[in-house]
Hints:
There is one protein chain. By secondary structure, this protein is an all-alpha fold. Helices cover 71% and strands 0% of the residues. It has helices spanning 10-33, 36-43, 47-54, 57-64, 82-95, 102-110, 114-136, 141-161, 165-168, 172-188. The longest helix has 24 residues, at 10-33.
Amino acid sequence: MPRESKKPTKSDRTRAAIVTAAQKLFAEQGYERTTVRDIAALAEIDPALVIRYFGSKDELFARVAVFDLKLPDLGKVDRSKIGENLVRHFLSMWEGENAIGGMPIMLRSATSNEVAANKLREVFSGQVMPALARAGGRENVAERAGLVSSQLLGLAFCRYVLKLPPVVNLSREVIIRAVGKTIQRYATGED
Length: 191
């Protein structure tokens, strides 16, 4: 006999509406400019419910800003194409269906909020460093991860936060090719 699927409760729907509204507003406005009242208004609920379900704006932010970079296994990528693969992967995260996900939220918020800055550091140390260790060994992996991160976050900041016209107008393929060369050097530790 097939199992009956559980119908979402009003509480489940309210919680989901809060998460969706928070993701959208944190991504568009950053942490500091987003208020609990803004989130509640977009979710079409009373602001007290945001606090009831999530405790505080910080706790809600921590919930919606969690994400997995889903980095490819760089040990299985053609060694000469690691840089291009990483840039292509990040562009797909920033410009793909995950664009309202954790990365834009954290990037906008990390400049003014220490919780966001810490979360961003955790993501890169916990995900980028291990990926690069598989690609180019453990030697200088922290330094290489820092350099890769500086390039990728710099690109994201210029293209998606500052929206610098010359960077915004670059095609994905130009970015993949140009930035990929620099990332390649940093990722593998080879000149």
